[in-house]
Amino acid sequence: MILGYARVSTRDQNLDGQKDALAAAGAERIFADTITRTTRARPELDRLLTELRHGDVVVVTKYDRLARSLKDLLEIVDLIQTRSAGFRSLGEDIDTTSPAGRLVFHVFASIAQFERERIVERTKEGLEAARKRGRVGGRPPALSSAQKVEVKRMRDVERRPIPEIADLFKVSTKTIRRVL
Questions:
Q1: pTM of the prediction?
Q2: Of 42, 51, 99, 153, which has the highest C-beta tally within 10 A?
């Protein structure tokens, strides 16, 4: 049986294109996740791996839809192979049901991980260069220095509860707790 897996990273993204490509590739069942974090917790992928049987083939549109890191990708494909199943990636034209396909898979996976690490490296270099020029990234502080002093006074002197202080300054209770 051919089992398809699709994943998007945000609720704004749409799974339809991946599902259509998987159906065109012969996927009889399609498992799909919408996951916004980098953790391994993907319930539909876990379900697919649980239901995987000898001779099945897991198909994805691109291998980065299956995993967020080289280590994760290799572990998942290894798990697929230990169940005597195959792995196919449509975008990279990789099919691990043959020795040549397994070699190509490992080469592509290594290149993808290298590129991801280079992007992280370049981002860090850019942020460091911006800091040296006096530019600071991120959100502006929710509370000014004077407001922070007032928050502490309200809590320590007036003994006001944190939710009340947060309402007065129109910020979250978490922001207030960071000040205290």
A1: 0.59
A2: 42
